[in-house]
Amino acid sequence: MTISPAGTEHVVAGLHRPVRRRPRLTSVRVTMLLLVTPSAFLLLLITAYPLGYAAFQSVHDGTLITGGSYVGLSNYGNTLTSAAFWDAAKFTVVFTVVGVFGSWLVGLGLALLLRSKFPGRGLFKVLLLLPWVVPVVVSATSMNYLVATSSSPMPKLFHALGLGSPLFLADPTWAQVTVCVYKVWVSFPFMMLMVSAALSSIDETVYEAARVDGASSWQQFTGISLPMIARSTYISWILMTIFCVNDFPTIYLLTGGGPESSTTPLVVLAYRTVFQDFQVGPGVAIAFVMTLILVVVSTLLYRQIRKATYQ
Amino acid sequence: MAKNQGLGHVGVSRRGFLGLAGGVAGAAAVSPLLAACSSGAATGSGPLKFWDMPWGGTAYSPAAKRLTEAYQPATGLPTAQYQQIQWANFTQTFSAAVASNTGPAVSTGGGFQAFQFASEGAIAYADHLIDTFKKDGTYDDFLPGTIEAMKTEKGYAAVPWAIDIRVWWYRKSVMDQVGVEPPTTWPELLSTGKKLAAQGYYGFAAGAGAGQPIGGQQMLMMMVNNGGGIFNAGGELDLLNDRNIEAMEFVRELVSNKIIDPRAVGYTIDNVNSQWKNKKFVMGIDTPGLDSILGDTSGDLLVMKPLAGPHGDKACLTFINNIMMYSNTPSQEGSEAFLTYYVKNMKTYWQQNLVPGLPTLKSIVALPEFQKQKNKVDVIQDWQPIGKSFAAQATELTPALAKIDSGQAISSFAQTMFAGRTDAKAALRTFQDALSALIK
């Protein structure tokens, strides 16, 4: 007879037939069940119920007030065949890829720089954290101040350098560049912290041994630092991917999704569809498709974490 | 053995846990019913909830609260309780409250909110109240066209309390410096704009960036000014009419002559206001309270006379801000009594100059405090009589207007026009297609 790890399933030798033994309802178990009930109830109330109602809305043609009539999967069908959805999906990918890898590269670079000891290093660390710490409303307003009008500092600087007069928020391509740069700006401190923490966990003797073997700085970086921080890196990528895909305020405050929808990611499209166009079913369908994509991407990255762990 | 016990140790199986979760889910499913029952009971008693938007500066809301709390209801009727609602996400706030029967009994709100909620059965029509106004003379005190704008097939969706108009403004000192006079026609607007552009100024103040609705309203006002509009007289979408195309071709001409700031596509409300303050914007379409919003007391910002389009048409865009009553109320009689009190006492806002909007009552226009405000008096005299609604060339306001006013289509259209890369007909066709899908 084999006992399963959970201790609840028994396999009778020869028959290979699982036999379930009903757990006894002891006073301890009753107490535990009672203790878990409020949490389970709250969890269901604040997560499962809205999720269930959103699923209901996505297959109905209701309004913000009424449920509407059942329309099957037509909201999903319309979403997946709409040009606006695919334009938003493309921009979401661009915004996320630039946001994740841009902020990671900047964060990695600064984390490596901050490993060396120099006067005022603590102050620099604090200053470099500011873009992440400052509320997004403040930093978005600051970014607007930097680029919006012809008398803003950045257009003046570009003009002074003979680089023309870019329309940072008014030209579709420049607006995409601006929001991506802004995203990197507000996100790199998080990456810097993650990488710094991972780098500090590497034993210095490993580098010493590598130096004794004649490894160059680049070889130490690619052969020791990067592999040793891989797990932390994948985790930070997953988190930043979720942050970027779900990033509503950055876009909404800076460009509102314009000009001409060029900076509209899926999350803003879903919001605008529900709360500005009052198309509740299609908007919720967009949100569900977005969530599905996010789950797939996160799962893929999570598998990378497991690989990195086993390596 | 007592410490670090996992789920398996206490014997809660997955099935057992799912059973528990199922029970809790059942309770969760019942909770909305309980909520509905409890909110239903709330309609019969308690104070009357009045939700109000921040219509003015910081002094407005305290004044509105005082006005509400000063209400002394007749015996048996509920008192009123003031609640300010922020403009940010106000649609969600109202919708969630109305859907859960926890919303207000009376409220101000978005210009088309009453029509939107009326179509969902959440509004108490004001016909009885309007009849009362007709009997006591209040009806005749309303400026022409204001109450009529609230009328739908089923009745009056709300009661007007303030007028919001889009009018042309100009900065006199810069105009004098450049040596130009305020234009009175579109051709003059073009020639004046060119002279201003030559000096580094913009003759058509515009903005269509994040959270900025003025751009779409400016485009619609140009269409209406030229005898066009979103709808035809029968209420059907009619964006591709000749007048609209002509108006938008004119806008393209303004863009190509740099009379419109090329960065306007991305301008927020703050950006537009700062361009006015910095005197980069010298002429433009804006709200009737632009001078007070900018804090300009110099008398340098003045309201123009209405411009005549190429065919001689003169018109502007008007929004009637209104107070609506909801079917979910402790007392319909109480709602009407409070609204009557409010309309008859709201003059305090204009006496104290607390709101940038214009009054809907002739008696308030006649107040000496209001008559001192030259720009607002000019707007009432010159612009209010030629006002047309968002529904132009149709006359009746509909729930669909809320989708158009707040929607993505009109802001994208304004951005397209200000960018100046697309010809007018193509831009209008895209706009029409987007609206067709929206209001089908």
TrEMBL record, chain A:
It is a multi-pass membrane protein. GO terms for cellular component: plasma membrane. The keyword Transport applies. Gene3D superfamilies: MetI-like. It is found in: Cell membrane. The chain crosses the membrane at residues 30-51, 91-114, 126-147, 174-195, 234-254, 280-302. CDD domains: TM_PBP2. GO terms for biological process: transmembrane transport. Keywords: Cell membrane, Membrane, Sugar transport, Transmembrane, Transmembrane helix, Transport. This is Multiple sugar transport system permease protein.
UniProtKB/TrEMBL annotation, chain B:
It comes from the Bacteria. PROSITE patterns: TAT. Pfam families: SBP_bac_1 (PF01547). The keyword Signal applies. InterPro entries: Bact_solute-bd_prot1, SBP, TAT_signal. Keywords: Signal, Sugar transport, Transport. The keyword Transport applies. Residues 1-35 form the signal peptide. This is Multiple sugar transport system substrate-binding protein.
